[in-house]
UniProtKB/TrEMBL annotation:
Domain Amidohydrolase-related intervals: 64-287
Claim: Lyase is one of the keywords in the record: yes
Gene3D superfamilies: Metal-dependent hydrolases (3.20.20.140)
MF annotations from Gene Ontology: carboxy-lyase activity; hydrolase activity
Keyword check for Lyase: yes
Record key words, sorted: Lyase
Organism: Paenibacillus hemerocallicola
Protein name, UniProt field: Amidohydrolase-related domain-containing protein
Superkingdom of origin organism: Bacteria
UniProt GO BP: secondary metabolic process
GO cellular component, one term: cytoplasm
Amino acid sequence: MIIDCHNHPDWYGYNVTRYLDNMKQYNIDKTWLLSWECPDDEYNPAYKKSIPDAGLPDGPISFRRCVSYAEQYPDKFILGYAPDPRRPDAIDKLDHAIKLYGVRVYGEIKLRMMYDNPDAIRLFRFCGEKGLPVTVHIDYEFATGSKYPRPNWWYGGGIESFERAVEACPETIFLGHAPGFWAHISGDDQYDKASYPTGKVVPGGKVAEMLNRYPNLYCDISAGSGANAFKRDPEYAKSFLLEFQDRILYGRDYFDNVHQEVLNSLDLPEDVLAKIYSGNALKLVPLS
């Protein structure tokens, strides 16, 4: 079985028909279908050619689209939803979505806020009470060369803010994701200078350190950032995946097959691949 732990409805022009065909093409049995609720002025306008709900209050990727997919194909999609923790009704909205629609994941949170914000901590703890893993997107502020409308598009406040949230919510499972997380597979200083760092992994990376320290931290390998973290140093990637095989989840955040190609190139034992492809996801979100 293969479970994609990170994707979105009507993303990059993939309606439900194209979506299902794509899953079949790459032997994906189920997908965690995540919303992205974010104020319009907090994301790059370049996304507007790829997102379905640009400019709408529940956009850029609304939960209602996730519900539509899941109601049509309940055997294929597992519902995720991440209302903005800064909204006073966030916990109520999530609670209702759990009761009414069977939401199983809080994700994706991708906001210009510190993830140890007290409102976020309260919501993360609620997720822990309800058994929902939390998928977070982290990006650093650094010089992009852009001037307008913002010089950069940071999310989450960096690895330190995320670590404080993980530590403050020991009963909540977190999945680290995106450039600002995966850059820390290495102990070098590229994390706040490039979205996709290059070169051999330097010992002392924060990701491994946090995995050793916090049993409630897991890794979502989706998007270019996850693939890049492994492709930049395949030898280290194999040792990392072997060491943390019980806390790595396969995901895509797109519709290509690069992550399967990378994983299958590393000569990992079949039992390890089985955990990454579905076993760990099923541990966090069992099939009901």
